[in-house]
Design goal:
Elements (H helix, E strand, L loop, with lengths): L15 H9 L7 H23 L4 H18 L2 H12 L4 H4 L3 H8 L8 H8 L5 H5 L3 H10 L3 H23 L3 E6 L11 H4 L3 E8 L2 H10 L5 E5 L2 H5 L8 E6 L8 H13 L1 E12 L6 H6 L10 H10 L6 E6 L5 E7 L1
Parallel strand pairs: 1-2, 1-4, 2-3, 4-5
Antiparallel strand pairs: 5-7, 6-7
Helix pairs in contact: 2-3, 2-4, 3-9, 6-7
The structure holds S-adenosylmethionine (SAM).
The site of S-adenosylmethionine (SAM) has 21 residues, from helix 7.
Length: 343
């Protein structure tokens, strides 16, 4: 598999290695037979997709079949075999069709040097900031994008953005001069949907991210509002290198999916310490088995730590900071698990 090119905060807290380590812990037996069977099945799946593209078959049907078949293959192979198969898929000729989709292409090429950057999310948000790239796609690329932007993961991410805005609004309704911190904020697109921001109800909304380009984007997009864009990382938060103050609401979306459990526990503890009494911390993590992991890990080269509700609960159970209330829920779409902790 193509490796990520950079350690996100220079200290490798969020890296491909942390994800593969998580994966390796589940490995039972490395079997040659299974590799050969997997290779044969993958070759068939990819060649069926290639033939369908070449024959101009309906793109939605081709993508649906490809996604389902990759998912079925992933679910019956060991993580080590799957890692081998993803690297084969990525060099298969069918990728020349799939990479015409601007979303698949951005994810695979990683222009920012790492997976899951804020511009990739803009393709998922169908945000005007990526209109030019979307309009420049070939007719086939546009049809594939119509599929990938409607995938379960993409629908879940758009729902997540809306839920985050609603959480911020609820906090602002219940607390005068509320202070909010978004960790791994990306482009903070949820702020565009917040009524509390529009009606100046917040004291400050700090948007922290390790990527200076995203920090710059937030800074110019929300100039003149209470939003403060800050360059920082999980490491700077854990190392208390920045004096961020205390908050009524802290949240992290699109981050825990990259964090090994030990780092997730430490970050959660630190976030709880930064809350005012009665404050809330929300973490979001993609749920396992939403049906698109196979496609994302192959053609998008976007591996994540997909967790079960029990695995999210296990992070909370290991936290050594007093919690007065906790709830683990899913959104309507079910693709993202949310934990909300109150101190
Ligand atoms: C998938 S995006 C999510 C962005 C935003 N929260 C959203 O939901 O649209 C992940 C973001 O996490 C940031 N990130 C990744 N590792 C980080 C770290 N160690 N510290 C701070 N930010 C990090 C990336 O720069 C990127 O903007």
């Amino acid at each position: 598999m193509k490796q990520f090119q950079t350690a996100l905060d220079g200290y490798s807290l969020v890296t491909a290695q942390s994800i593969s380590k998580h994966t390796r812990s589940a490995v039972s037996k490395f079997s040659n037979d299974q590799i050969k069977e997997g290779e044969a099945e993958l070759a068939l799946v990819l060649s069926l997709a290639q033939q369908a593209f070449e024959a101009n078959a309906p793109v939605q049907d081709t993508m649906k079949a490809l996604t389902e078949r990759l998912q079925a293959l992933k679910s019956k192979t060991t993580p080590m075999t799957w890692a081998h198969l993803t690297s084969l898929a990525q060099v298969h000729p069918v990728s020349s069709f799939l990479l015409q989709d601007p979303l698949t292409r951005w994810s695979f090429e990683k222009p920012r040097g790492y997976s899951g950057d804020a511009q990739l999310l803009d393709f998922i948000y169908e945000h005007p900031a990526v209109d030019v790239q979307v309009k420049a796609a070939s007719p086939l690329g546009a049809e594939i994008y119509d599929f990938t932007r409607m995938a379960a993961s993409a629908v879940a991410v758009r729902e997540r953005r809306d839920l985050l805005a609603a959480h911020v609004d609820t906090v602002a309704d219940g607390t005068e001069n509320a202070e909010v911190l978004a960790i791994a904020a990306g482009h903070l697109r949820e702020a565009e949907r917040s009524n509390a921001l529009k009606s100046n109800k917040l004291k400050r909304w700090v948007a922290l991210d390790q990527d200076p380009i995203s920090v710059g984007t937030v800074s110019s997009a929300f100039r003149g509002t209470c939003i403060e864009a800050v360059n920082g990382s999980v490491r700077t938060i854990l190392g208390r290198a920045q004096k961020l103050g205390t908050f009524d609401f802290i949240y992290a979306a699109g981050l825990y999916d990259y964090l090994a459990e030990s780092v997730a526990v430490k970050l959660t503890e630190r976030c709880l310490q930064m809350l005012k009494p009665g404050g809330k911390f929300l973490l979001a993590n993609f749920a396992q088995d939403i049906g698109v992991e196979g496609y994302m890990e192959t053609f998008m080269n976007w591996p994540l730590i997909w967790r079960t509700d029990r695995e999210v609960q296990s992070i909370i159970d290991k936290v050594k900071h007093p919690i007065t209330d906790s709830a683990v829920t899913r959104g309507e779409n079910g693709g993202v698990i949310y934990a909300v902790l109150t101190v």
